[in-house]
Amino acid sequence: MPRIPAKRTTEAGPLLKLFYRFAGKRFGAVPEPMAVVAHHPGLLRAAVVHELMAEKASKRLPADVRELAVYRVATRIGCSWCVDFGTMLQRHDGLDIERLRHIDDYATSPAFSRAERLAVAYADAMSGAQVSVTDEQVAELEAEFGRAGVLELSYQIALENSRARMNSALGIVDQGFTSGDACQVPLP
């Protein structure tokens, strides 16, 4: 149970009920982080608009590269909700979720392409207690993805750091968006 309880539909006004309905149709359930943030309507509106705009704008990178980097952040921070939700999103995008079991071995696993390895290593460098990104790393990413691709990757990794850290701080845990073995992807 989260440290701040989710706002129930019975407590919601008309706009929040609309948000909940939209989220329920899109994801099959209202994401618990949304229902917790609903206690602050201004931040909820800002978060919903921001998430939709970031999703719409993030089309430079291949989906597998972007989603693996975001997933890596979730595992590094230890956000079980983000791992659960991210696995579901990858499955819905038709991406191979079986290889997520090998994310800790990304540097040597044949399950990951060179581009994916670069992105996941960058996620690692951005997600520690201290940011450890190097000039060489950014140059290599720019050669692979272009400037706009590096900016998109950086933005998405930073955004997931924010989500994962907030969810972890508030005690929001996996919600069951994935079924079967998919939600059993181990955290490091």
TrEMBL record:
Entry-linked Gene3D superfamilies: AhpD-like
Chain ranges of the Carboxymuconolactone decarboxylase-like domain: 50-124
Domain of life (superkingdom) = Bacteria
* Gene Ontology terms for molecular function: peroxiredoxin activity
**Classification via InterPro entries:** AhpD-like, CMD-like
Which protein, by its recorded name, is this?
Carboxymuconolactone decarboxylase family protein
The protein's organism comes out as Amycolatopsis carbonis
Q: Which lineage is the organism of this entry classified under, starting from the top rank?
A: Bacteria, Bacillati, Actinomycetota, Actinomycetes, Pseudonocardiales
